[in-house]
Amino acid sequence: MPPKVLLLTAGYGEGHNAAARGLHTALAERGADAEVLDLFALTGGAFYERSRRDYIALINRAPRVWAAIFALIDRLPIVPLTLPFLGKLRRALAAVIAEKRPVAVVSVYPLYAYLIRQLYPDAATRPFAFHTVVTDSITINSVWHRAPSDTFLVPNEASARVMERAGVPPEKLRVLGFPVPPRFARDRPERAAPPPPRVLYMVNAAPEQAPGIVARLLEIPGLQLTVTYGRDEALRRRLEAAAAGRPLALHGWTDRMPELLMTHHLLIGKAGGATVQESIAAGTPMLITHVVPGQEEGNARLLFENECGALCPTAGALAAKIESLFAHDAAAWRQWEQNIARLAKPDAALQIADFVLGAE
Question: Which domains does the chain have, with CATH numbers?
């Protein structure tokens, strides 16, 4: 029988689910029987959906409030204080482990480690390996490592150094990358050199600003602009109006994001963990329009400190940066492309799958 692996996630932010999906695909390719479980969704009912919506609304509408909460969680043992109220979740986790009998459990959401510690206080007698995939970079909240894990799988060396300074034993750290879909590691489409510059704008924050950004970017001579707008059909109509008949490629929800990222020269979007890591895997530099204080600051810093991204919060700033990047035969963009290539681990999901299955 193929080895059973449980992947534990939660819908509080897209990065966790994206990591779980990428790793699930890689484990299946390696012959494992992998299963993704969001036990919050399975046990929380209407409360879970409401809390998830409230979380997303908070980070979008009151980022400073979220920054204060993020700092509080980092400094104080708040998560352990919530454990007495998570009995239903803990019982569900115990039941699924007893039923599935996994050889390994992989968490991409930090709270599960605290439940595992409650269920198996003696790690030596735990009947499975337990690994934590850290989905943030550099600004890593201590909630990720206050509960034990056999290993912490981190996306880059900078994050490993942060966790080691926080007291995580170096032998428990593995720098294997963020588990982007394995499609990034093979069958990569060829990206033509600019000109013309091809820019991908992912509207994953502040949709009310998107039409103005599109209108301004389409004023740049020769620019080829692609916009993804998800399932917001009203936004699509506003984007079409902003284009005013000028060429604009529009995509709603699509499973072609890896292809789009790898064939464009530049990504515009929010500094979410999955977005930044997929941009890195594609070798596509990024202009960031929004950064959620705390958890996303490290994602942005990763790009800024390696000189392959910039913060451009307005349409004017975006246009000015794009024009400078692609001036003089795109000399600045070419340097950014070389810089981001040094960060890329497009086969990270496969590397993590091999490690989890003991093939490393």
Answer: 4-178+347-356 (3.40.50.2000), 184-341 (3.40.50.2000)
